[in-house]
Write a structure and sequence with these properties.
About 30% of the residues lie in helices and about 25% in strands. It has six helices and eight strands, in the order H-E-E-H-H-E-H-E-E-E-H-E-H-E. Helix 3 packs across helix 4.
Length: about 200
């Protein structure tokens, strides 16, 4: 097992795909990035704030995100999802666009806590034993939830084959994915948006 604190920083993403990739970066910069002074939970300040759902939930953003995602998702993948709520717009958007192209990806959500009734536990959606799974995030911050998502998928009897983030903000998620035995890809990285990796420390309320 690799120690995430000593693992190399994120390898960013698959090779750029030209115009689509640049348009995705531009969409994030226009709709998801805010500049100013923001207080982090530690009390430190940051000069930028990222709400990548503004891209993942926007029609144009969904199409750009899905185009990039489908270029790196393994062809034998059969399901896509992750921990709510960050994973949800990525998983559902990519799965919907994939279906229009003849690629069948069942989508699902992992609850943060198990239901106290019913039989589905932490998983809601179409995840099945034997699925080859892409675990998603909208923004990969520290990456500490990756191991939890991987464990839940494996408990169902499915196989995680990729951790996929719309944006890697922190630069540490790849180490956590590697420690869990799953490759990591980000469609866009913080440096591509013009900011250094910051360890993924989120802004406070």
């Amino acid at each position: 097992m690799t120690d995430p604190s000593t693992a190399p920083r994120s390898p960013a993403r698959a090779p750029a795909r030209g115009d689509v990739h640049q348009r995705l970066v531009a969409h994030l910069l226009e709709h998801s990035v805010r500049r100013g002074e923001f207080v982090l939970k530690s009390g430190r300040t940051s000069d930028w704030f990222l709400d990548s759902k503004q891209t993942a939930c926007d029609p144009d953003g969904v199409l750009l995100m899905a185009e990039e995602a489908l270029a790196v998702i393994p062809h034998d993948a059969t399901a896509i999802g992750g921990i709510t709520v960050g994973a949800d717009p990525v998983a559902y958007g990519v799965a919907a666009v994939a279906a229009t192209r003849g690629r069948h990806l069942r989508s699902f959500t992992i609850r943060k806590e198990a239901k106290d009734h019913g039989v589905t536990g932490r998983v809601a959606g179409a995840l099945r034993p034997g699925d080859k799974v892409v675990i998603t995030e909208d923004t990969a911050s520290r990456g500490v939830t990756i191991a939890d998502a991987v464990a839940v998928v494996r408990e169902v009897g499915a196989e995680p084959v990729l951790v996929l983030a719309l944006v890697d903000r922190g630069g540490t998620a790849a180490g956590h994915a590697e420690a869990a035995g799953v490759p990591f890809r980000a469609l866009v990285t913080a440096p591509e948006l013009g900011f250094p990796y910051d360890g993924g420390e989120p802004a406070g309320d």
